[in-house]
Design goal:
There is one protein chain. By secondary structure, the protein is α/β, with parallel strands linked by helices. It contains eleven helices and eight strands. It starts with 16 loop residues before the first strand and ends with a helix. Belongs to the short-chain dehydrogenases/reductases (SDR) family. GO terms for molecular function: oxidoreductase activity. Keywords: NADP, Oxidoreductase.
């Protein structure tokens, strides 16, 4: 583990533009705060306008950011491909550079009987399809920024150690079709957790596939996926009784605070160590804080990465044509 404190060990981010999705509370909120404290202009992505604007107001208040950075609300709903694309396009109208994208937003609990769209679970729609669409739409600007002298562009995607529990992880054909995205795991003891695990496996495949494509183009962009740690966020509030009580108790007694949970994201996004050892960190999976570990073996499988990419792109094209 790297000794790291975001108040002391981050690059000066003055002049840098950052997006953090799902940032009105929890890990995302703390990530915004730390990066803005180091001088960045951070766009705080939130699905809910009131919650997003309230978070920005709080960060700009006397107990919020203390540095010379800025925080701007960005409407960002990853609940459908169309809304994810719209959020990215709205940003593109505001800025001519993007130095760091942190894919923090995640659905942590959904209902088996309530698919998001086209039979796809809400978990997969937000955590994978929305994130993929949002990133893809912003990619030309990320690439353009990376071509500037002295740039340090990074794409950070939050996964989870629970990706290791994905039930179909050993099946290399898992994402060859849309079946897994519509798999509600109704026969498992906690279906929503099984769906979450699979979505986090998809996040790792996506990050690794994107890095592989960038490296083939000799791009300097660094893609990192990570586990933030076990963090006491508002996840328990969405769960049914008694799961909410059990989860809430465990979180409050054993978990990291959101501020601590943001450390790994901040390290990946802005630690000078990452750029100094860029080849080591490209495509890396980090445990807190800044510790490179091996994820599930098949997340490095090129065939699985390509299958996920192709299946996703095919669906997004079909969705856009409706």
């Amino acid at each position: 583990m790297v000794k790291f404190n975001p108040t002391q060990d981050l690059n000066d981010l003055s002049g840098k533009v950052v997006i953090v999705t799902g940032a009105n509370t929890g890990i995302g909120y703390s990530t915004v705060k730390h990066l803005a404290n180091r001088g960045a202009k951070v766009y705080l992505g939130s699905r809910t306008e009131k919650k997003g604007k309230d978070a920005v107001e709080k960060l700009k208040g006397p107990l919020g950011i203390v540095g010379k950075g800025d925080v701007v609300f960005l409407p960002c709903d990853l609940g459908s491909p169309a809304s994810a694309k719209q959020a990215a396009e709205d940003f593109l109208k505001l800025e001519n550079r993007l130095d760091v994208l942190i894919n923090n937003a995640a659905c942590t609990y959904d209902k088996t009987e309530a698919p998001a769209q086209d039979g796809i679970s809400e978990m997969m729609m937000v955590n994978h399809f929305g994130t993929f669409q949002f990133t893809s739409t912003l990619f030309p600007l990320l690439k353009k920024t990376s071509e500037e002298k002295g740039s340090d562009v990074r794409i950070v995607t939050l996964s989870s150690a629970l990706h290791l529990k994905t039930l179909g992880a050993k099946d290399k054909t898992l994402f060859n079709s849309m079946d897994e995205f519509r798999n509600f795991y109704v026969k498992t003891s906690i279906p929503t957790l099984s769906r979450y695990n699979s979505s986090k496996f998809a996040n790792l495949l996506f990050s690794n596939a994107l890095q592989r494509r960038l490296t083939a183009e000799s791009s300097d962009i660094i893609c990192i996926s990570l586990h933030p740690g076990i963090v006491n966020t508002s996840v328990a509030g969405r769960m049914p009784f008694p799961l909410n009580r059990i989860t809430g108790f465990l979180m409050s007694t054993l978990a990291l605070t959101p501020d601590q949970g943001a450390y790994n994201s901040c390290f990946a996004a802005a630690s000078p160590l990452v750029r100094k050892s860029a080849d080591k960190y490209k495509g890396a999976y980090l445990m807190p804080v800044g510790r490179i570990v091996q994820p599930a073996v098949n997340t490095k499988d090129v065939g699985m990465q390509d299958a996920l990419w192709e299946t996703t792109e095919t669906y997004l094209k079909q969705s856009a044509s409706k």
